[in-house]
Design goal:
25 strands, about 725 residues, five-stranded antiparallel sheet
Amino acid sequence: MTSLPGTRTSRVTVRLVALQILVFSLLLTLGGRLWYLQIRNGEEYANEARSNHVQQVIDPATRGAILDARGVPLADNQTRLVVSASRTELLKMKDDGKAVLGRLAKVLGMSEKEIRNKVRLCDSKTPQPCWNGSPYQPIPITDEATTQQALQIRERAEEFPGISAEPTAVRRYPSPVDANTAQVLGYLSPVTDEEIQKAKNSNSPFLRSDQIGRSGLERMYDKYLRGKAAVTRYEVDNLGRVIGQAASDKGQAGASLITSIDARVQAIAEKQLDQAMKEARKQMDRNTGTNYKADSGAVVVMEAKTGRVVAMASNPSYDPNAWVGGISGKDYARLTGKASNYPLLNRAIQGQAAPGSIFKVISTAASVNAGYDFNGSYPCTSSYSIGGQTFMNFEGQGHGAINLGRALEVSCDTVFYRLGHEEWKKDGGDKPKKDAHDWFYKTAHQFGLGKETGIDLPNEVSGRVPDRRWKNAFWRANKDAWCNQAKAWPKKKDFQTKLAREGCLEGMKLHAYDSINYAIGQGDTLVTPIQMATIYAALSNGGTLYNPSVGKAIVSPDGKDIKTIKPASHGRLPVAPATLRQMDAALAGVAERGTAAWRFQGWPQDKIPMHAKTGTAEVYGKQTTSWFATYTKDYTIVMTISQGGTGSGASGPAVRNLYNALYGVDEEGNIHPDAALLPKPQTSLPKIESDGTIAAQPIKPYRLPTPSPSPSESPQ
């Protein structure tokens, strides 16, 4: 059956109309899209198109130096021969530069794969090594080229197109007089994409070529030290060929940082800490029958009247030069692995441990604040018992009825056990009163514990004051795990299950034994060496708690702008002047006739009064932690050694040697002023020349003065 002519004509007409509508719709959509791109967002896309044809070459700024208090460089820059490759030139070659890189590998003694990896561009999927900077600037291959290698490349330039060998400033950590200062200085590494994006709209945006501080002073003062890189912009065509030069930015060298560190004292502090740890490992722990492990330690030397840090050492340590030019995977694993005991940690500000008896200055102040008479009579028995538990005095010694000053001198635990327990009972025991005074915990907070000191170094930790609030929060965080472990009771009655059961049932309570242990710096209390140095410096200077500081001044590259970093305080000790004088006399007694006297025999106490407190902190599952806190009118020194034994036994000799160096005291107790490294705190800055350079004072390694011969020993 055939269709009628009219019907066929109607169908064709419908199809033509539909096709016209479709074409019109497509044209309308295309027109709308063109309007959106050219009119609505035209300027934005034009800017992006222009930027696609403008490439920039970065000339990194010379990073500012970090200097000690005498102007001696602790971190500066040295000129090295840097071999670089131009990726743009290599890609113009038929083989993408493979032959050139092969010849370069032979000259430098590197593998071709290693060099090719260094010139490839980084992205989210490309592992290191790769280049994270602009593809239009020279990519460094090595900064350790020899003069001979550089000459081969330059003399045979036709064989090495796109390859350059030029002297370039590279970061250096010179370790003057063997002062490593690693954890204080920190290190550098390339900026990441995330950091670039985060700082994109800030006042100090990053460039892809930037090296930034990752720890220590390099990080804390990075914005001053980094300077401003010079940026040269080139207009390029679609093939990447340069066709002109656009507006460029001038660079500016970084500022220099003058610190309060004295390289001579720093070197001695590092050496003495290391030697003390080695000597501790030779001594036997009577509790375990094995030698002390002495696995880590720290020492702080501080100006008592300003809080400025003269030396700060942490052990184990590392060589910050390992990061220069990029750290190898092997070195990185070693520095961050458990086997090396994490040498990147600055244990002076990040190492936390129970303080032991050096905490008793806080317990003494708390007792007086609670109403106890400093000169009252307190029984120093050989032990103290509560609820079937017996807490022993050190080595079971008793000293009869003594005052608080004498309790500090002989470090009598039982005096402070009793005072801590009595205050706990007055506050309601494990059912605390609403108006509980908690003098022992309140005083610790007022001394600055449980929070950061404010030192100008990153990643400081706060330590811990285990008061009722902390106890409750800790229980809430752990009760589920404790209660789950406690289900094994009574079938499993080992020590860990017993602790878990107690924690599950009563972990929110502050028990009597908590207060007793706390009163002598044990239990859950944690402090850092820098916190205790700040406290003992305050005892020396009359009660001011200074923010410890390392930076002393920031000097512009031309030397015309000097920003002095003045000492700042975060409070005062909660101690009356009369009590402070009594505590000061008692701590002098510790050095004269107390637990530290055997380490200060022959010290010129009449000319340079020494004050000290020893500490031996017990740690569950480990050997005891050695603490030694001391001060004179000028300086405070605190040393600690993890698993090192007793305070005066392990740390005492090293601290004494440090004071000998500071004041020029020989083994016979004679003072040699000309030999003293720092007879008084350094207040002035090094001389700054007219061209902005900072003149370093002459520096010589310290040698302990020899004793003056007595008349009977004089030559005949």
